[in-house]
Design brief:
The chain is an alpha+beta fold. The chain has a domain of 105 residues: OmpA-like domain (60s Ribosomal Protein L30, Chain: A), CATH 3.30.1330.60. Helices cover 53% and strands 12% of the residues. The chain is built from five helices and four strands, in the order H-H-E-H-E-H-E-H-E. The protein has a four-stranded mixed sheet with strand order 1-4-2-3. Helix 4 links the parallel strand 2 and strand 3. The longest helix has 37 residues. The N and C termini lie far apart (115 Å).
Length: 194
Amino acid sequence: MSRRSRVASLLILAGAVVVACAKSPAPAPAPAPAAAPAVDSTRIRDSLANAKRMADSASAERERQAAAVAAARSSLVAKVFFDYDKADITDQGKAILDAKVPVLSTNPGIRIRVEGNCDRRGSDEYNLALGQRRAAAAKRYLTDHGIDAARIDIISYGAERPVAEGDGEDAYSQNRRDEFAIVAGGDNLKVAAQ
């Protein structure tokens, strides 16, 4: 082959390569980096505010429940007072006992003890008997209102446990009382439904 024909062959081959390259598509540009999602600050702020309201509401509910339990416990141990030389439940005493009934009904595992007390006037034997009648009167009132008698113990202390010293009516009236003690089941006190 002559030199001329070799050069012509090379030129034809080079032309074919150029034409072939011209026909192939150009490489695609690299994709642009993905944009970060837009931050919706209003939505985030609303979500945070809603979470705070829920936490505050739960906290308020816990506080309300704790206050209700404390009130129920307080009503269970509230004292009932008596007139001089009497074991009859007064109207005020009935109101105090009425507040105990729903707490006792809601909490069947609670046992209480009614402790009858007297002022120091009278003999020891008389005051022990009067304290017993006072404790029995409170127990009878509660059982008449649906509380199982087996859940209520009674004891008389007569004049042995005064809460007020002195010889005046003020001291005497504070000592004529029934006290109430929770003896079992008071750890998991439930509140009566309203």
